[in-house]
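Dear colleagues,

As part of the handover before I leave the project, I'm documenting each prediction I ran so the next person doesn't have to rerun anything. This entry is a single chain, and its sequence is reproduced below.
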Amino acid sequence: MHPALSVILFTTLSGAGYGLVALMGGLAAAGRLPPDPWLAGVGLGLGSIAIAAGLIASTFHLGRPERAWRAFSQWRSSWLSREGVLSLLTFLPILALAYGAVIEHDMAGPWAIAGVATALLAVATVYCTAMIYRSLKPIAHWHNGWVAPGYLLFAAMSGALWLNAILLGFGEADRLIGAFALLSTAAAAAVKLGYWRHIDGTAGESSAESATGLGRFGAVRLLEAPHTGENYLMREMGFRIARKHAAKLRRVALLAGFAAPALLTILAMLLPPIGAIPAAVLAALSAMLGLLVERWLFFAEAKHAVTLYYGAARA
């Protein structure tokens, strides 16, 4: 599949934003978020900006962005529509939580309920995003059990790394959040490795024989290409990446997205504030870079079944 920059930015930025606000909402509801209005404002503001930037970026992938509003009407059957509806609804408890923390200086009672709603809606939105891809049967690389856990863990990891940096920046170091950032990073790396092992070791379910229905007559091969020139399907769904390039980019994603953030987070837990703060910020930034590469590969390595009609053996 063609790796569109708009969708890569959307899934990376919004994932981090939802992860951050979900963790802050959960901590606020549990009474563990420091009672600092500036900390709450910066954290919820940064998360909301990341979410909004991701949502705006996603519209640039639409052929007719001015008609994006129509996607909200299909929520009964479309994961994309459900994602759109939930993404907007999530802003309501975020604003309520921010009002309680920043204006009222209170995160109990109704504001705690807003924290729970923020966490639940944020997680639900990320899950809907994952299911947009998980539900596509023509793309075997996405239609498997590794996709949804990956999206949820990437959001948790990136959100935890940013929250850890924010807490340290405000002098509110929390070893539990640091430990959660480490554990979520390790879990996300394990899921990503499992996903790569799955797509490398599992042949696509579709073949030229099954696509044409001629398998009972023997092997099927392409005699001539359907088109003399490149078309939309070949550009968007027939994108190919060389195996050697994919291997290099996987190493970059592992190092920048998981190994470096884990090491920097450990350093942030051991160093005094003057060294811990830059280490935590670098951990979050490195994770974002690694996730951008990982997202690019997620699309570039996927194979659509339509490529079977253009010479592919399996998809």
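The chain is about 70% helix and 0% strand. The mean pLDDT is 89.

All the best with the project,
I.
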